[in-house]
Write a structure and sequence with these properties.
Elements lengths: L2 H11 L7 E8 L5 H6 L2 E8 L5 E9 L4 H13 L4 E7 L5 H8 L4 E4 L1 H9 L7 H12 L4 H13 L2
Parallel strand pairs: 1-4, 4-5
Antiparallel strand pairs: 1-2, 2-3
Length: 160
């Protein structure tokens, strides 16, 4: 890893304490950019949402690879900085994350990002049908409750 990137990543690990409980944690990446891609680095950031709806960027982590060890480092950093519990973590099917999250925050529910769920669903449709399929799936993914989502799924299955 280039020394400048390594220093920046190290400096961020000493970030200030954060609230003990977060409602949700969004993990995004990889970020694209010529410098990052040329160096072959995984660049991840986390965004937290608190009970009052306020949001905060908790950190940015830069590594040459990502996997269980990387995510263990991220979650240990959050734990060290004071995060005692995370209700829901939202990510895009990142390698090693379920295992690392379960080890550090065993009560956290890991949810796949809705954008990625939709994108993965569209992989099964032809290009000409994707727009209609995305519109048909939207009521399922945007439902206000589990019951409403199941009703929307039933309608989708019946072709309504």
């Amino acid at each position: 890893m280039p020394s400048k990137a390594k220093k920046s990543a190290h400096d961020l690990s000493g970030s200030p304490a954060i609230p003990k409980e977060l409602v949700s944690l969004f993990l995004k990446g990889p970020m694209t950019g010529e410098a990052i891609n040329a160096a072959g680095l995984a660049f991840k950031k986390s965004l937290a949402m608190r009970r009052d709806g306020s949001r905060e960027i908790l950190g940015i982590w830069i590594e040459t690879t990502e996997g269980a060890k990387f995510w263990m480092k991220v979650f240990n950093d959050l734990k060290t900085r004071g995060v005692a519990d995370i209700l829901i973590a939202v990510a895009d099917g990142l390698k090693g994350m379920p295992e690392a999250l379960a080890a550090i925050y065993p009560r956290t529910t890991l949810q796949t990002c809705v954008v990625h769920l939709t994108r993965n669903s569209l992989d099964y449709a032809s290009w000409k049908d994707r727009k209609a399929l995305a519109a048909a799936l939207r009521p399922i993914y945007t439902a206000a409750s589990a019951e409403a989502a199941l009703a929307a799924l039933d309608e989708f299955e019946r072709g309504e």
